[in-house]
Amino acid sequence: ISLHVLFQELITVVTCDGRIIVGTLVGHDQVQNLILNDAHERVYSDDEDVEKEPLGLYMIRGDNVVLIGEASEWKDDVRCDPLPPIQQQIS
Amino acid sequence: LQHCTPPPTTGTPKQESGPRMIFYSFFKTLVGKEIAVELKNDVVLTGTLHSVDQYLNVKLLNVKVVNAQTYPQLCSLQNCFVRGSVVRYIQIPPEHVDTELLQDAARKENAASTKK
Predict the structure, then answer these.
(1) SS (H, E, C) B77-103
(2) Over its length of 116 residues, how does chain B's per-residue pLDDT go in tens digits?
(3) Cβ atoms within 10 A of the Cβ of B110, count?
(4) How far is residue A15 CA from its own chain's centroid?
(5) Alpha carbon distance B58, B43 (integer Å)
(6) What is the 3-state secondary structure (H, E, C) of chain B?
(7) ipTM value of the model?
(8) In angstroms, how far is CA B24 from the centroid of its own chain?
(9) Which residues on A lie below 8 Å from B79 (Cβ)?
């Protein structure tokens, strides 16, 4: 599957620690390492509106990627608990 | 800022038959069908299977978050790429699966691998 269709698009990335990062995809490789331009993190909480933390030019290592989607309309007044992290298997 | 271009696809040939390709081949037969994907972070997505690769990475179209009340953050998603390593379950409608064929293929593969 190629991520090249998303090249230069505004995308949403969910990471293994439960963070949601939005940015423009400017680079990627076969293991889903990503480079995002003008990235920001959307921090959700139960008691406050969405906090947007600017990150600038950001690189995400593919190991930590959960899902990649096209960003569309965002509601900033959503209040909820943050996404759970991916439970790592203990072997 | 110079835009990064993705590297050209490497010359390594893809292994399309043999061990561990049964499920990749199986999922290829489900392209275009509606499936549910449960991730290890408890998010459940339903959508149409657009494509799958050898790592069982999955691309879904017309995505809906099943547990939208618990996880409203992802409701504006339409199409998404899901990394195979974070999938816990994939739910498939039974009418799209020939379980006997799958069992046979798995049995043959098992027999072949125990002979080695």
Answers:
(1) CCCEEECHHHEEEEECCHHHCCHHHHH
(2) 444 555 555 545 556 665 678 999 999 999 999 999 999 999 999 999 999 999 999 999 999 999 988 999 998 899 999 999 999 999 999 998 998 989 999 999 889 888 76
(3) 12
(4) 6
(5) 15
(6) CCCCCCCCCCCCCCCCCCCCCHHHHHHHCCCCCEEEEEECCCCEEEEEEEEECCCCCEEEEEEEECCCCCCHHHCCCCCEEECHHHEEEEECCHHHCCHHHHHHHHHHHHHHHHHC
(7) 0.91
(8) 8
(9) 69-70
Alpha-carbon span A68 to B57, nearest angstrom: 11
Instruction: Report yes or no: A35 at the B interface, CB cutoff 8 Å.
Output: yes
Put simply, whether B108 touches A (Cβ < 8 Å) is no
Whole-structure pTM value: 0.87
| CB-based contact A12 B42, cutoff 8 Å | no
Q: Dig out the tokens for A8 from the structure.
A: 């230069």
Quote the minimal CA–CA distance from B116 to chain A in Å: 27
Token look-up 């007044």 returns A77
